[in-house]
What we know:
By secondary structure, the chain is of the alpha+beta class. 15% of the residues lie in helices and 35% in strands. The protein has a 7-stranded antiparallel sheet with strand order 2-3-16-12-19-11-5, covered by helices on one side. The longest helix has 22 residues, at 128-149. Residues 165, 185, 197, 212, 241, 243, 253, 255 line the site of 2-oxoglutaric acid. GO terms for molecular function: dioxygenase activity; iron ion binding; L-ascorbic acid binding; oxidoreductase activity, acting on paired donors, with incorporation or reduction of molecular oxygen. One of its GO terms (cellular component) is membrane.
Amino acid sequence: EDGITEVLAFRSEVLPGRFIEVPCSEDYDSHRRFEGCSPRKCGRGISDAVITRDEARRIRSVAEKGLSLGGSDGGASILDLHSGALSVGKHFVNLYRYHGKSGSKMMRTSWAVGRWYFGDKIQTVFSEEDFQLYRDVRQKVQLAIAQAFGISASSLYLTKPTFFSRINSTAARTAHDEYWHAHVDKVTYGSFDYTSLLYLSDYLDDFGGGRFVFMDEGANRTVEPRAGRVSFFTSGSENLHRVEKVCWGTRYAITIAFTCNPDHSIADPALT
Length: 272
Ligand SMILES: O=C(O)CCC(=O)C(=O)O
Ligand SMILES: [Fe+2]
């Protein structure tokens, strides 16, 4: 694909941490500022030293397990760990409280997080260990972001949505499948101040296409996914980005984002 001019992180590199400062957009001027959190400097960080390959492998298994219960007809499936929304066919079901047709794959979930009925058997989708792993990963990423931007980790709050994504090369069927459009996370998600992406599969080993692209004026700058690689950035329009279409294989990632506004904070996903 033309227009790719610079690679910020190759799949084969093992980055101890790379930080690229970019001038903050004016987006922040119109937002309430939170001392010790709202970005004074904007930019992007990429690190292969925050999450181990083993942690990435374990969290990928959790993603596979959750997403295996559903799956979009069209290429891009998500499982939102906060709301329980899971892509199924052309729609979403709530994994945490699904009332499906009897005889469907997922018959009915209870109101308790992560429990569902299959036939007359109560199954638990996620274990306490799975949620513990999510919390450990979230905590490490939060510390890395705080350190890179010179802010205090305790002034960052987890915000929604936080989700697993699974992308393959199947053609899109609905607008929800169109993951490749350029966007600004602060606009798309509202509450995001700092976005992080943890990649759970390897570019060119597990899938082709699917590189992350920062669309800067005059240059596209890519991050090649690598299992265990964390990419994080301020969520304003200084970090307009897109994901290339996946052309073969399956790409897994998890999105974990933080807000400076305590009103937009959510608790870690948990078994209730
Ligand atoms: O999966 C990625 O690399 C990026 C996804 C993304 O841009 C988003 O979820 O907002
Ligand atoms: Fe995004």
